[in-house]
Amino acid sequence: MRATAARGLVLAILAGTASVAAQTTAPPDITAVRPIPAAQSVFLEELTWLEVRDAIAGGTTTVIVPTGGIEQSGPYLAVGKHNYVNRALCAAVARRLGRTLCAPNVPFVPEGDLEPPSAHMRYPGTISVTEQTFRALLTDIAASLKAHGFQHILLVGDSGGNQPGLKAVAADLAGRWAGTETSIHYVPEYYDYPAAKAFAARSFGWKEIDEGLHDDAVISALVMTVDADAVRIRQRIAANKASINGVPLTPVDRVRDQGKQLVDFRAAAAADAIRRAIAK
Known about the structure:
- By secondary structure, the protein is of the alpha/beta class.
- It has helices at residues 2-24, 49-57, 81-97, 131-147, 163-176, 193-204, 217-224, 233-238, 252-279, and strands spanning 62-67, 100-102, 152-157, 183-186, 243-244, 247-248.
- The strands form two sheets. The chain has a four-stranded parallel beta sheet with strand order 2-1-3-4, sandwiched between helices. The chain has a two-stranded antiparallel ribbon with strand order 5-6.
- β1 (62-67), α3 and β2 form a beta-alpha-beta unit.
């Protein structure tokens, strides 16, 4: 009994001490001087809050919000394929624009009904959210970025199902924010796979024949610029299956280089569209 009571008293004291500490700990000084040089990254999530604050104060007032997805993509391609593409493409667009950051990629997007499962949701690994949830999430993300002083917010997506929500949220917030210092834009040019496929056919001589796997040479090459393992290239080479839609994915270095050219092609088109949108 005494031991139990003693333990109870100790726990109560510790809880009280923690509560007092939580109440008396001062929040960080928003005007604090950054004690070390800033890291150089276009990815907001890789920066400290001090680095973000100073970047905005120094003129980095444009931010891209990339949306990807978690969906079935055949037997070879990782379900996060669009997120891999965004890692390469958003960074390339930000560097072309200058004074631009990439917000964290949004991987959770509409991929089909939940009950009963439809579309991609019929396949294990897919994660879906409702259109309402997706739009609410985008709205809150954009509002957060506005609150911190970003003046130009760009909504982009690497998946077809994302586009209606991106367009709707941008239109809604543009109306609400009219007359403020913050603009928001939906950039459909970021997601132009027909143009990318035409570029690949022109530049590399690729002639794809659809195998019906929700996979293709263009997106595989794009993913390979970030992580070739995400297309299971080693296993496919060993199994003599290192091709998609009739296009070989070897030699790996050559296809990775072609993927980088595709990133540059898409980034140039997206950056030009963003400049036009901001200039309006």
